[in-house]
Specification:
The complex is a heterodimer of chains A (about 400) and B (about 110). With about 400 residues, chain A is of the alpha/beta class. Chain A contains 14 helices and 10 strands. Helix content of chain A is about 45%, strand content about 10%. In chain B, α1 packs antiparallel against α3. The chains are: A alpha/beta (about 400), B mainly alpha (about 110). The structure holds S-adenosylmethionine.
Chain lengths: ~400, ~110
């Protein structure tokens, strides 16, 4: 585990002289006193601070190009080959197949293998680029930065270093080094990683415009009363801030199990002067009173938790919502469409995402009776709610008045 | 697994490491390694090319000519610094070729070994 002290100690020798030569001017001492220093050596693109070095930025740029190529040309070729192999073996590629049979048929195909290999490498190399660029070049400064923001407003930050961290949240989900709870730079790595992910899919998020759009798609209660909003698994608080901008008079809370995530989120909110509160708490045990919130939202939280935890989160959302309040959990496949892959190729891709992109809980999420459980805890479930993310319809659950 | 407490300086806690380094998609894991090495080479090539593009723009503005660049003689200090950087690059490109992936794409998870 990375530790401030070890980092300070090793920095002087470890920093490559070449990169220092290029970025020396950008190194600033942290001044004593009140003014927080905002480390932004290479200015910003939109709201995203440029990576600490030109090399890191260029490597990420190349890997974003690779992701784009992988998700376009290579994926199409791989799908075509996959389906051709199945057809030649007498299988119907439009139908699902047991994974064992899929492995047996396509396991050694060079093109199908290349798609799997490149996907993982692009993701791993990008993460490594981000982590190294913070850790090796300006680690002490970057670690000191949030310390100056932790107690600064307008909003608040609550960290709970002694809280119980469930094992299921400790995985390096989608290969993020150290995961959400174990990486000192988790917030920044998540930010740059997801930005590249969106960019490779043609969605710009340099101004958090993706999250602003999501926030505008989160339904309000029918009576229009919105005094308090909770964003569960808020990560770096992009939706949390979006929701506050959407409902300026509401008190808005973002909670997440990962301290490094919300510390980074809090820092960004302070920079933007947005009054939102972050707390290190569990979505299944929010410690808010009953009937407290008008809206409970989440974005891509549930596919990263086991089904049992998901069920607990749904029950907790029901508890903290006031009668008439709405629950809007945006994620993969919410709403009216089928949750399971409908054909062998998609099954295979889902398996690889689960096993090798380390989306540990994603298959459980796909298999879980999500809507059934919502109804079971008492929600009125509308599976054909408004569009959100790439879903044509999105689930909106209401606590009966 | 016995888990450690939160580190008070970074608020981080112990995580469960992924075993993705062990996957191989090709029958011969060396092919996996070569693909990885090629990607690494690509990122370095583009990163250098992009830096050169920036430099050329800036140098042009300052009157540094192509000829001056070609005839530059590195100092001893330059040489030592550049060697460190060169060795990092060698490790990055050649390192993956030494991996010996032994899990098949269908291997079950084994986090708690
Ligand atoms: C994919 S991220 C989504 C972050 C954010 N909502 C966004 O818009 O990008 C999932 C987040 O859920 C958090 N998380 C996972 N399980 C949790 C739990 N039980 N309680 C609170 N947060 C949790 C993770 O730490 C991570 O930050």
């Amino acid at each position: 585990m990375l530790n401030r002290r070890t980092l300070f100690g090793s920095l002087a020798g470890a920093v490559s002289a070449l990169s220092v030569a290029f970025t020396k001017a950008a190194y600033a001492k942290i001044p004593a006193g009140d003014t927080p220093i905002d480390i932004e050596p290479r200015s910003k693109v939109g709201q995203l601070e440029r990576l600490p070095t030109l090399d890191a930025e260029s490597r990420n740029d190349f890997l974003t190009g690779v992701r784009n190529w992988r998700g376009g040309k290579l994926l199409s070729a791989s799908r075509e080959r996959f389906n051709q192999i199945l057809t030649e073996a007498g299988e119907d590629p439009r139908k699902d197949l047991p994974l064992e049979r899929i492995f047996q048929l396509v396991g050694n195909d060079p093109l199908v293998s290349l798609e799997g290999r490149v996907r993982i490498d692009a993701q791993r190399m990008a993460h490594k680029t981000f982590r190294d660029s913070f850790q090796n070049h300006r680690g002490d400064v970057y670690l000191a930065e949030p310390e100056q923001y932790d107690k600064r407003g307008p909003g608040t930050l609550e960290l709970n270093p002694d809280m119980h961290i469930p094992d299921y949240t400790r995985h390096e989900i989608h290969m993020q080094p150290g995961g959400y709870v174990g990486g000192a730079f988790a917030g920044a790595i998540y930010h740059y990683g997801t930005n590249a992910f969106y960019e490779a899919r043609g969605t710009d998020n340099y101004l958090d415009e993706h999250h602003a759009k999501l926030a505008s798609q989160v339904s309000a209660p029918a009576d229009g009363r919105v005094r308090r909003i909770l964003d569960m698994g808020c990560g770096i608080g992009q939706l949390t801030v979006g929701l506050k901008k959407q409902h300026e008079d509401a008190e808005v809370w973002g909670i997440d199990v990962g301290a490094p995530m919300i510390r980074y989120g809090h820092m960004r909110a302070v920079d933007e002067n947005v009054d939102v509160n972050f707390a290190q708490r569990l979505a299944e045990d929010t410690r808010f009173p009953d009937n407290h919130f008008d809206i409970v939202a989440s974005y891509i939280l549930h596919h990263e938790m086991p089904a049992e935890a998901s069920r607990n989160v749904i029950a907790e959302a029901f508890r903290v919502l006031r009668p008439g309040g709405v629950y809007v959990p945006i994620d993969f496949h919410t709403g009216g469409q089928p949750r399971r892959p409908q054909n062998a190729f998609n099954s295979y891709q889902l398996w690889k995402d689960h096993r090798w992109n380390n989306e540990v809980w994603r298959i459980e999420y796909q298999d879980m009776d999500y809507f059934g459980h919502m109804a079971k805890v008492g929600f009125q479930v509308n599976r054909k709610g408004p569009r959100a993310w790439f879903n044509r319809t999105n689930v909106v659950a209401t606590k009966p008045a | 697994m016995a888990l450690k407490k939160t580190d008070p300086s970074t608020y981080t806690t112990e995580f469960i490491a992924s075993d993705v380094d062990k996957v191989r998609f090709y029958e011969d894991p060396m092919i996996d390694n070569i693909v990885t090495a090629i990607l690494a080479l690509g990122t370095e090539t583009w990163s250098n090319r992009r830096r050169t593009l920036v430099l050329e723009r800036l140098l042009q503005e300052k009157g540094v000519t192509q000829e001056m660049i070609e005839s530059y003689m590195p100092s001893d200090e330059d040489k030592a610094e550049w060697q460190t950087e060169r060795d990092r690059l060698v490790e990055m490109i050649m390192g993956p070729l030494m991996r010996e992936g032994n899990l098949s794409p269908s291997a079950k998870r084994q986090h708690d070994e």
